[in-house]
Write a structure and sequence with these properties.
Layout lengths: L3 H6 L4 E2 L3 H19 L5 H11 L2 E2 L4 E2 L3 E3 L5 E3 L4 E2 L3 E4 L4 E3 L4 E2 L4 E3 L1 E2 L4 H5 L2 E4 L2 E3 L4 E2 L4 E2 L4 E2 L4 E2 L4 E2 L7 E4 L4 E5 L3
Parallel strand pairs: 2-5, 3-6, 4-7, 5-8, 6-9, 7-10, 8-13, 9-14, 10-15, 13-16, 14-17, 15-18, 17-19
Antiparallel strand pairs: 1-12, 11-12, 19-20
């Protein structure tokens, strides 16, 4: 019999209120609380907490609290990346953030999906699709990235944009829904 965690990790429908997933979630919430209440001058302590919470954190990466996630172990962040205040990472599926990426304040990376039908939604069934953010990407403040989206290398997403579909490399995208408005100049 497949566990709900295995179903979640495989991207299949799973029950969100599964007890094992509840344990995983409580672990992440406890670590997020510690991250968000740590003395902000304790950079070493903060880095260690993020290494315990997340699947991977690259060298010379800065993540500024407050920070929230569902599980943590589903998220990897590359080297020399900067994540500003207020990141929400609903990491029910994998969230992969590349190297040298800049993430503005209050960005949301949202992997969960929910059935449209009332019955399954009421019964707590959900699924998720991964988010991939390439290298040297800049997400402006308040950007929302929806399930299943990939953002290509060197792409800039303007403040407040809602990214509902993949964005190629080397473009600037803005708006809701985000649309490409020009190429990134060399």
């Amino acid at each position: 019999m497949t566990s709900m965690r295995d179903r979640m990790l495989a991207g299949e429908l799973y029950l969100a209120d599964d007890p094992q997933l509840g344990i995983d979630d409580m672990r992440a919430q406890g670590l997020c609380h510690r991250v968000n209440t740590l003395d902000p001058t304790d950079h070493g302590g903060l880095r260690e907490l993020f290494r315990e919470l997340l699947g991977a954190v690259g060298e010379h990466t800065t993540i500024r609290p407050p920070f929230r996630c569902d599980y943590g172990y589903q998220t990897t962040i590359g080297a020399r990346t900067f994540v500003n205040w207020g990141m929400v990472c609903a990491d029910v599926a994998r969230v992969t953030i590349g190297d040298d990426t800049q993430i503005g304040p209050n960005v949301q990376l949202l992997t969960p999906t929910h059935p449209v039908q009332a019955g399954p939604r009421r019964d707590k069934w959900e699924a998720a699709r991964p988010i991939t953010i390439g290298d040297n990407v800049w997400l402006g403040g308040g950007v929302i990235v929806l399930p299943g989206v990939t953002i290509g290398d060197n792409t800039v997403v303007g403040a407040g944009a809602v990214v509902v579909r993949d964005l190629p490399a080397d473009v600037v995208a803005v708006g809701n829904p985000a649309r490409v408005v020009k190429a990134v100049e060399p």
